[in-house]
């Protein structure tokens, strides 16, 4: 157990927590101390020593208070070509004045939502920590049969303000036949390291369709644990796309529970890492019922001394016959010092299923590179072309055109200049 | 145009080429034949600049420049084109984008204006006819899922687009049926002019019925052991390579 858990270091977080959800908080706190922050050898966190990182980098474990956000800052944060709604979070707190929200969707402070019913504190210490000590919670509810035509861009402004801990807490509910797309982009302000420990719970009702896209490009002050957990019902669809381009140490826990037949869960991820960035994607799909499908594709390009971790768990329960579950993780290492730890983990109890998984780790294809050069293409550009061809496959899963184009330009810029 | 003098090359310390001498002038077609493992493909690769091969001795000048000193892309821009024996499949890179990048980089090097989309497409259409290649094929990823014949045709199509002065065809005939062979050869013949030259690397004489060489060289154990005209190829077709091997090997033991 980390010393952060055994000593009083984290006390300010619990003391800074508001009085609401008192029983949920008490339960979570108990669970947190029972688990402790992951120790060095904890299986689920053994490649991502987040507790040690926090001990070293974070000195003030107070919750960060909201900071000053201007309209100009919001404007700058919106990427070119974006056409949709904007939801501004200020260290986790909703800024209604700065936001432009769709009227057909309700946005409010968390009140009577069953928090912790999807992302359960007993399963993960960071989820427990968030539930015990989050300051501002946001509830988003898309009424049934409501199709939100344009995407909702969540601009999550994050900055240490004495306290260096930010714990956004979001509850999203999509009613029967509702459709909605979120794009989450974090903007890290200030010079200080910030520990962001986010929990997003998503509940997709019958025949709903939820897309949750994320761009992690905050720079090297970011120490982040993100927990997204989704329950989806019959005939519904959930798609997550996670693009990670920078950060100090980032851990993404993405859990998807398929609770109704004919539901479909898609998880896509791309990580382009350089310097000493460390990104860990842990995903978990739980097939509980027959006739559901999950697709997963994560790709990584790692340069310099960066480190990537991929752990993909697929759990097919005994009742979940006729499951289709596909998983793929491919990596390209561009330097001798870059490291990837990848682990597919399939646990299948049903006997009539189609499951496949594969993972590859290699270097840039020298033969392909020579082929392009032999046609007169400059070596650097040929490399960029090949790397983009590799990475682009993930971006194709972003349905929103403007966000897709934005990611393409970021990725191309990175592959042309940084690698 | 191309002058190879006493070229030695090895791969991972093993010598493959052991003193090649060859002069190729504009307007000429040279065939390089020889038994398997004689170094034919190595010669083609060394000329194109494949990095695995180390040149240990000798020199190659191309249009007066030291070819061995140039990066593979600069060799291509100077006008050397290698049609690969095994064209590489590159998923995710569209044939058209690839070719446009290549053509414009080559043009830029040669001091020509870059082609805009319209001009590029019309050039493509014109050259596609040469090798009877289907537009649909070019809308796919580069060589991905192409049949053997389609890949080879695509090589000649690329050659037509890049307008090289020296084309090296590395076993372009291998794996082609007679129709594909005819189409590919037709393409090559139409691209021939008094200003460019072609080196045809092949194991079989069959291709030389279609692409008629001015000179035929036999490569064996990393050296050109015999040179002649197209009749030499016919003789090889009839008698195989054994008599040449015997001639060379017995000369070596004397």
TrEMBL record, chain B:
> Which InterPro entries does its entry note?
AAA+_ATPase, ABC_transporter-like_ATP-bd, FeS-cluster_ATPase_SufC, P-loop_NTPase
A GO MF label? ATP binding
Q: What's the domain of life for this entry?
A: Bacteria
Query: Which residue range or ranges hold the ABC transporter domain?
Result: 2-246
Q: What keywords appear on the UniProt entry? A: ATP-binding, Nucleotide-binding
GO cellular-component term (any) = cytoplasm
Family that this chain belongs to: Belongs to the ABC transporter superfamily. Ycf16 family.
Q: Which NCBIfam families match?
A: PRK09580.1 (NF007134), sufC (TIGR01978)
Record protein name field: Iron-regulated ABC transporter ATPase subunit SufC
Which species is this record about?
Answer: Algoriphagus zhangzhouensis
């Amino acid at each position: 157990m980390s010393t952060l858990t055994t000593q009083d270091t984290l006390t300010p977080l619990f003391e800074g927590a508001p009085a609401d959800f008192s029983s949920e908080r008490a339960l979570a706190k108990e669970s947190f101390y029972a688990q402790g922050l992951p120790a060095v050898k904890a299986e689920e966190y053994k490649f991502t020593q987040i507790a040690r990182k926090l001990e070293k980098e974070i000195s003030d474990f107070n919750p960060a208070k909201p900071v000053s956000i201007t309209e100009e800052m919001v404007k700058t944060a919106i990427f070119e070509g974006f056409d949709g709604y904007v939801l501004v979070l200020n260290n986790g707190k909703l800024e209604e004045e700065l936001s432009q929200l769709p009227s057909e969707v309700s946005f409010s402070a968390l009140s009577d939502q069953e928090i912790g019913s999807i992302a359960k504190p007993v399963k993960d210490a960071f989820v427990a920590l968030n539930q015990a000590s989050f300051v501002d919670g946001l509830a988003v509810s898309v009424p049934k049969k409501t199709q939100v035509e344009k995407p909702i861009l969540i601009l999550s402004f994050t900055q240490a303000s004495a306290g260096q801990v930010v714990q956004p807490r979001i509850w999203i509910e999509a009613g029967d036949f509702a459709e909605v797309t979120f794009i989450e982009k974090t903007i890290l302000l200030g010079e200080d390291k910030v520990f962001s420990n986010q929990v997003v719970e998503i509940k997709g009702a019958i025949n709903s369709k939820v897309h949750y896209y994320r761009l992690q490009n905050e720079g090297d002050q970011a120490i982040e644990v993100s927990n997204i957990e989704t329950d989806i019902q019959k005939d519904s669809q959930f798609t997550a796309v996670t693009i990670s381009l920078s950060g100090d140490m980032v851990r993404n826990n993405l859990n998807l529970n398929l609770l109704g037949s004919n539901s479909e869960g898609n998880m896509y991820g791309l990580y382009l890492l350089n310097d000493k960035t460390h990104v860990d994607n842990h995903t978990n799909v739980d097939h509980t019922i027959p006739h559901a499908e999950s697709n997963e594709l994560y790709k990584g390009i790692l340069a310099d001394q960066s480190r990537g971790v991929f752990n993909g768990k697929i759990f097919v329960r005994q009742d979940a016959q006729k499951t289709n579950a596909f998983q793929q993780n491919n990596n390209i290492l561009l330097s001798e010092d870059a490291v990837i730890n990848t682990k597919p983990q399939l646990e299948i109890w049903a006997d009539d299923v189609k499951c496949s998984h594969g993972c590859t780790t290699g270097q840039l294809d020298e033969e392909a590179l020579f082929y392009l050069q032999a046609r007169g293409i400059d070596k650097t550009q040929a490399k960029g072309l090949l790397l983009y061809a590799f990475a682009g496959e993930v971006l194709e899963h972003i349905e929103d055109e403007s966000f897709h184009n934005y990611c393409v330009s970021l990725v191309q810029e990175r592959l042309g200049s940084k690698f | 145009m191309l002058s190879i003098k006493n070229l030695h090359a090895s791969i991972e310390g093993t010598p493959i080429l052991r003193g090649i001498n060859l002069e190729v002038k504009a307007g000429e077609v040279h065939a390089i034949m020889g038994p398997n493992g004689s170094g034919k493909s190595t010669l083609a690769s060394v000329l194109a600049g494949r990095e695995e091969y180390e040149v240990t001795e000798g020199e190659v000048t191309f249009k007066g420049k030291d070819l061995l000193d140039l990066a593979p892309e600069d060799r291509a821009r100077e006008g050397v084109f290698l049609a690969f024996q095994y064209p590489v499949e590159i998923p995710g890179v569209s044939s058209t984008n690839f070719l446009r990048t290549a053509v414009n980089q080559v043009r830029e090097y040669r001091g020509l204006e870059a082609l805009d989309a319209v001009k590029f497409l019309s050039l493509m259409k014109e050259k596609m006819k040469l090798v009877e290649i289907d537009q649909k094929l070019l809308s796919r990823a580069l060589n991905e899922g192409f049949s053997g014949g389609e890949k080879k045709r695509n090589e000649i199509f690329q050659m037509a687009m890049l307008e090289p002065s020296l084309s090296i065809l590395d076993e372009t005939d291998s794996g082609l049926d007679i129709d594909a062979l005819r189409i590919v050869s037709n393409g090559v013949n139409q691209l021939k002019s008094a200003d460019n030259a072609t080196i045809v690397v092949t194991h079989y004489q069959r291709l030389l019925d279609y692409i008629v060489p001015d000179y035929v060289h036999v490569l064996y154990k990393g050296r050109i052991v015999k040179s002649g005209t197209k009749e030499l190829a016919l003789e090889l077709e009839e008698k195989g390579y054994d008599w040449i091997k015997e001639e060379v090997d017995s000369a070596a033991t004397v």
